Structures are given as C-alpha cells and as structure tokens.
C-alpha cells in the first residue's frame, strides 16, 4: 500500500505537466533504481515495433519538487513506468535530453541496428536489373545447350510446369459463379410435337453460331432475338471437341430456359422456346462472360491444353531416357565379368 501511495504522490507532482521530461529526470536518479533496472528500461509501442532503449545519459536536471525520489526500492519493476506513457505516441526514434548552457533540448535520433536496414527497401538501378536478367538468361542458355540430355529435358519440363501453374492461375479470374436456378415448369411435349418441331427446325435457316469463344452472353442474346419471330432456333457448334456439344446444350438450356429438341451428328442443337414464351427484359444473363473476356479465356485454355500435352511428351521422353541409361549401366557392369570368364576358359584350355 505504501508503494501505491508513493506512486500517486509522485504522479500528482510532476506527471500533469511535461510528463516526458520529468519522467526522464526521474529515471536519471540512480539511487532510486538498481543498476540492472536502468539498463533494461525500454519504450515499446503497440504497433509491434521492436523496442529501442533511449539514451538518457545526458540528463542533468534537478528540482526541489523531487524530494520523494530519494526513497529506494519504492517500485520493484520498471514495467510500471510503461503505463505512464501512451504507447501509440511513441516511435522507434531514440530521445535524448541535452542541457547545454542551461537550455533544455530534445534530440530525436534515427533508429539504429537491424531495424533501420530492414525497413528500407533497397532500390536496384537499371544497370543492376539488366545484369540480373542477363545472368538468368545465360543460366537458361547453358542448360538448353548442355551436352547431357537429362539436364535439357528437366529444364524444359520445369519451365513448362511453371507456365501451366501460371495459366491455371489466370483462368481462375474468368470463373463466373452460377446464379441460383429459377423455379419454372418445363413443358411436356408429345412425340408428335417433337417430330413436328424437328422438321420445322431443320427446314428453317435461322441459326446461332457457337465458335471458339464458347457460350457467353451474346449467344443467349441472339437466341432470344430469334425466338421473337421463330419458335425454334438452330445452334451450330464449330469448332467443337468430342462430347462438348452436350455441355453446350445443358448450359444454353439453363441460361435461355429453352427446350432441347434434338442434337444432330454435325454438332447442331435445335432449341424450342416453349408455348408460353415471354421475352425477358435482360436477354444477356449476368452470370456469363462478355465477348472479349470469352476470347481471352479461350486463348488461355488453348495454351493450357498445348502445355499439358507438351508436359506429357517430356515426361515420357525423360522416362525413356532414364530406362536407356539404366540399361547401359547394367551392360557396363556385366562386361568385366564376361571378360574375366573368357580369360578363365582360355587358361583351362591351355
């Protein structure tokens, strides 16, 4: 209780005005603290900065108000003083109090040690960047022109895998979240109606092209524009991979709310708009790509397909080379034994 009472008395006397100055003077009185406590007083902020000990050796201030400072062992731990200072107003700079010619001055020094070097980002000159790029280019050229075929294959394989990872990361930007499916009653058509719609769909010349961009907002928009005057519309998918027509048919049926009547062998899909068709206000759905973004996605997908094929080819080539290397190694090991067996036979014959 005596310690807390003394703390209150000290804080009333000199914490109200100029708390930092009087705190420094308070610390300077060595009779009040044991020597290890003076060495370990630190200022630490709440922003996870590393603590920097202030240089308070230049302090030389005396005042009759500090009569209570002569009492020893009033405060056992120096951490109590941390509560007197608001941590967010502190920084990494060290504070030094100078008393030259009876004038008190504060000097803020720059942070010292590893902290100063880590906070600064070293800027590379243009020449250094060019030299670094040249170094990597020469390193790659050395691997490409290596006499060892394994080194060449492994370098190509590593480069192709890096490109594949980069392309996958790029394609993630073009993934569109599908909107929740709206509840609607699909119309049930009889066999006669389906046969009639097939014949009319084949005879009519109106069609929508699904090209290399795939299904995007413009395809669905064109289908709705055709359904304004026609009951059916043909969707021609070219170029199209094997089995991709079924994916296009499901996607277009979900986006346009149309009914798939037939899928032809020449990658043509016939869609029926329905009896109670009403043209929507927004004919291009929100969960589709634009024309330009669909083209960019197609380019990345095409590059990814070629890269994956190239990786498979390199892996097979590397596997064959390692098998060939193992066969040659076994043949070299068996050669001295055969030679020694031949010498043994010759000696017995003689």
How many helix segments?
10
Please give the alpha-carbon distance between the first and last residues.
113 Å
Strand order in the largest sheet: 3-4-6-5
Order of helices and strands: HHHEEHHHHEHEHEEH
Q: Main sheet, how many strands, which sense, barrel?
A: 4 strands, mixed
Shape: flat
Mean pLDDT over all positions: 74
In terms of DSSP E residues, the strand content is: 5-15%
Overall strand count: 6
Cα-atom Rg, whole angstroms?
41 Å
Classification by helices and strands: alpha+beta
- Give the proportion of residues in helices: 40-55%
- Poorly predicted regions are 14-18, 20-89, 111-116, 344-350
Keywords: Coiled coil, RNA-binding
InterPro entries: At3g25440-like, RNA-binding_CRM, YhbY-like_sf
Organism: Gossypium tomentosum
Pfam families: CRS1_YhbY
Q: What can you tell me about this protein's structure?
A:
With 350 residues, the chain is α+β, with helices and mostly antiparallel strands. Among the domains are: 2-114, no CATH class; 191-288, YhbY-like (Translation Initiation Factor IF3). The chain is 49% helix and 10% strand. β1 and β2 form a beta hairpin. The chain is flat. It starts with a helix and ends with a helix. The model is unreliable at 14-18, 20-89, 111-116 and 344-350 (pLDDT under 50).
